[in-house]
């Protein structure tokens, strides 16, 4: 098994052996899918039997077990398209504050974005307004990191060889032990602390609209049993900030990196923005009139993957697909990075080319149907995530030029497309220059901040 950037090795296996590759690691079968059609036919069309999850330490602690279906029901209730659109005011507010930070302190763009995505998720999840050096954000980020490293394919080995659980932490190569222990502690903190805060607000009648408040007011969505319901709400809100903030951050960073690799795209987008929106900030109401911006969002989700190998599924009963036998218990990995780079489907896959989604003559799959996963396990946060990404892209391009930083030698720095390993991936830190597009940009942003309502 490769130990980093697994998706690239799995992709190469696909090129060598075909779109469906079976490997066996210490008796555990894993099926790796490298084709959109195969993933669609197995994970979507046969979702009924392909929607189990392998046991993943830490991830499971937080989010599986017999009540899992109830979690999912709570999520799909809280974040269907209509409910997700109901949170656009939160996204608009935090995004406007982001623009102001990019105006005054552009070099720390990645830090500002991290705070913004955290603020959006905490407000929508719990109605919690974050502060500088926020404790809950710190816990959420640490728990998220532990979860991401614990959920890599190599990490399942601990389940295949349970004796590994007894290897002491100091033993060379046994860092998974530490990750597991710290992860469990963090997941407890993550579930308990923010939840206790939110319950107090709710009981005092001060809770702001949020996923949490919605579920507290509709407890039967989670469960008929009030004790179980409380538990599900606690876990679901914790999962939300463990999964939501970093994923949106990663896709926005990919968009910024892409602007450095494909500067001409930025010009086309800005021409569309100037023509359609003029000299105000784009809003969600402009979405239909800005197809090129929407195409950039789609291409950002395709060009590099937030979750390159998806989240593994497990087939619950024996199956036969195109003559291949897939036994019950096989772990199914949809190589979302590989599927998004299949040149039979996306021509010149390495190029950042939003136009591919505007060509009505030869339609290609919408990357949302890849990036957010499959079947019954499809990401319930996808509408919320797309809304956030869309506004970041539209308003950043309306206000700023995103260009390469200039090195000490006077040459432009085009950062390589290097990404972190782990279940969720994001670009390694890179420098870039974010400058206002015109003299009035500053006034426009300051005026927009001043016009924000006092509170949500
Ligand atoms: C760009 C942002 C995001 C991406 C690319 C993304 C991607 C994914 C993927 C690939 C899966 C696994 C699907 C599968 O098993 O086939 C997933 C699951 C999940 N996502 Fe997201 N996600 C994003 C944002 C969010 C947000 C904002 C939330 C919270 C509101 C969220 C909550 C979840 C949850 C709870 C699951 C588990 C679903 C299950 O196991 O049934 N995600 N996501």
TrEMBL record:
InterPro entries: Cyt_P450, Cyt_P450_CS, Cyt_P450_E_grp-I, Cyt_P450_sf, Cytochrome_P450_fung. Pfam families: p450. GO terms for molecular function: heme binding; iron ion binding; monooxygenase activity; oxidoreductase activity, acting on paired donors, with incorporation or reduction of molecular oxygen. Its cofactor is heme. Keywords: Heme, Iron, Metal-binding, Monooxygenase, Oxidoreductase. Gene3D superfamilies: Cytochrome P450. Belongs to the cytochrome P450 family. This is Cytochrome P450. It comes from Mycena rosella.
């Amino acid at each position: 098994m490769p130990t980093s950037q697994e998706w690239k090795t799995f992709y190469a296996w696909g090129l060598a052996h075909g779109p469906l590759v079976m490997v066996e690691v210490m008796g555990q079968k894993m099926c790796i899918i490298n084709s959109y059609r195969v993933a669609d036919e197995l994970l979507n069309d046969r979702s009924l039997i392909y929607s189990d999850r392998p046991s993943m330490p830490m991830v499971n602690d937080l989010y599986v077990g017999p009540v899992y279906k109830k979690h999912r029901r709570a999520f799909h209730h809280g974040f269907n398209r209509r409910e997700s659109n109901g949170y656009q005011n939160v996204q608009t507010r935090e995004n406007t504050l982001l623009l102001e930070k990019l105006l005054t302190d552009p070099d720390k763009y990645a830090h500002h974005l991290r705070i913004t995505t955290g603020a959006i998720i905490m407000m929508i999840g719990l109605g919690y307004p974050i502060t500088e050096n926020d404790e809950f954000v710190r816990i959420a980020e640490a728990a998220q990191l532990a979860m991401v490293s614990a959920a890599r394919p190599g990490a399942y080995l601990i389940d295949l060889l349970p004796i590994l659980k007894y290897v002491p932490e100091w033993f060379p190569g046994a860092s998974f032990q530490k990750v597991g222990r710290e992860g469990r502690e963090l997941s407890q903190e993550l579930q308990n602390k923010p939840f206790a805060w939110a319950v107090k607000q709710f009981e005092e009648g001060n809770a702001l609209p949020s996923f949490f408040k919605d579920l507290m007011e509709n407890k039967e969505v989670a469960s008929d049993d009030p004790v179980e319901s409380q538990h599900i709400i606690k876990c679901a809100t914790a999962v939300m900030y463990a999964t939501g903030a970093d994923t949106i951050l990663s896709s926005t960073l990919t968009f910024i990196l892409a602007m450095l690799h494909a500067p001409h795209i930025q010009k086309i987008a800005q021409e569309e923005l100037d023509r359609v929106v003029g000299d105000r900030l784009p809003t969600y109401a402009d979405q239909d009139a800005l197809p090129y911006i929407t195409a950039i969002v789609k291409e950002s989700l395709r060009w590099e993957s937030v979750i390159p190998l998806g989240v593994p599924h497990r087939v619950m009963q024996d199956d036969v697909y195109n003559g291949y036998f897939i036994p019950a218990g096989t772990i199914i990995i949809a190589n979302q990075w590989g599927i998004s780079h299949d040149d039979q489907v996306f021509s010149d896959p390495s190029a950042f080319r939003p136009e591919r989604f505007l060509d009505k003559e030869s339609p290609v799959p919408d990357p949302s149907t890849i990036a957010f996963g499959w079947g019954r396990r499809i990401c319930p946060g996808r509408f919320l995530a797309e809304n956030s990404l869309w506004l970041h892209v539209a308003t950043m391009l309306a206000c700023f030029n995103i260009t390469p930083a200039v090195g000490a030698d006077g040459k432009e720095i085009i950062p390589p497309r290097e990404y972190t390993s782990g279940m969720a991936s994001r670009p390694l830190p890179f420098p870039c220059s974010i400058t206002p597009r015109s003299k009035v940009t500053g006034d426009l942003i300051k005026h927009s901040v001043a016009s924000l309502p006092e509170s949500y």
